[in-house]
Design brief:
Helix content: 55-70%
CATH superfamily of the largest domain: Rhomboid-like
Number of domains: 2
Strand order of the largest sheet: 1-2-3
Structural class: mainly alpha
Largest sheet: 3 strands, antiparallel
Radius of gyration: 21 Å
Order of helices and strands: EHHHHHHHEEHHHHH
Distance between the termini: 22 Å
Shape: globular
CATH topology of the largest domain: Rhomboid-like fold
Strand content: 5-15%
Oligomer: single chain
CATH class of the largest domain: Mainly Alpha
Number of strands: 3
CATH architecture of the largest domain: Up-down Bundle
Number of helices: 12
Length: 289
């Protein structure tokens, strides 16, 4: 069986600038890799990927690698990917879940949160095999932290997934807690088998990023955003946010006239909510048999 999230029914109150920027950066880095010769791409990955043996000092950095500190690869590796499916899967998860987490933290705290989870994921990977000379690349660990934050902040948000069982394909909707709990369970079940592999999927990095997300979210969330809210609490929180936006739009006419661009931005927020809800409803109804 295979399942893949496609979108959620959880509109945001602001444009997810950081989430979109990360997606663009990862895409541009991959395009750059794609344009290199096979030999140069290999050198690029080994130079900017996180190699445990170099970071721990078990090995000395070869002089033909690009000249950057080994510690810097804790960050550079987070924006690199090993293939198109690797990139596409990671960016899909970030696109679906990153905007709401950024909305619940704010852009600055979200940036710090994302990078911290990525670094924590890499250190977890290093702890499993500190002498490994295989480079670790990918945003999966950082995104795992984002998934943990989404689980804590929006557990009842509806996530639309596609389920493939052999030749049977079906669309279905599940609460985020079910989708994300299923994802982390797969990581734990798959992690032991990865110990015998040289390369492949770094499941322990995913687990490390997820645990870091669980630990950091209580400190990074916006004030007033509940942790593990009930369905009623979650609905009440977003009703409050929508009411606050609408109230601000309806404030003093003279003040809005002086700041027309701000009023336009708030109206766009409400438009995005209505459009996204309509989109979800449109594709939910055919499955209600």
């Amino acid at each position: 069986m295979f399942f893949l999230p496609l979108f959620d029914n959880n509109p945001t109150s602001r444009t997810p600038v950081i989430t979109r920027s990360i997606i663009v950066i990862c895409g541009l880095v991959f395009l750059y890799q794609f344009g290199l010769t096979e030999q140069m791409e290999r050198l690029f990955i080994f130079s900017y990927g996180a190699i445990p043996a170099l970071i721990t000092g078990a090995e000395i950095r070869p002089n033909y690698f690009f000249d950057i500190p080994d510690s810097a690869t804790l960050l550079t590796s987070v924006f690199m990917h090993g293939g198109l499916l690797h990139l596409g899967g990671n960016m899909l998860y970030l696109w679906i879940f990153g905007d709401n987490v950024e909305d619940s933290m704010g852009p600055i705290k979200f940036t710090l949160f994302y990078l911290a989870c990525g670094i924590a994921a890499t250190f977890t990977h290093i702890a499993i095999d500190p002498s490994s000379v295989t480079p670790l690349v990918g945003a999966s660990g950082a995104i795992a932290g984002v998934l943990a934050a989404y689980l804590m902040l929006h557990p009842h948000a509806e996530v639309r997934v596609i389920i493939v069982i052999i030749i049977f394909v079906r669309w279905a909707s599940f609460p985020a807690v079910v989708v994300l709990a299923g994802w982390i369970l797969i990581q734990f079940l798959s992690a032991p088998s990865s110990l015998a592999e040289d390369g492949g999927v770094a499941y322990f990095a995913h687990i490390g990023g997820f645990v870091a997300g669980l630990a950091l979210t209580p400190f990074m969330r916006n004030k007033g955003h509940p942790l593990f809210p009930s369905k009623a609490e979650e609905a009440h929180y977003y009703e409050y946010k929508e009411d606050d936006i609408e109230e601000n739009i309806g404030d003093d006419t003279e003040h809005l006239a002086k700041h027309d661009h701000k009023a336009d931005n708030r109206l766009k927020v409400l438009d995005r909510r209505q459009m996204k809800n309509a989109f979800v409803e449109r594709y939910r109804k055919p499955q209600s048999n």
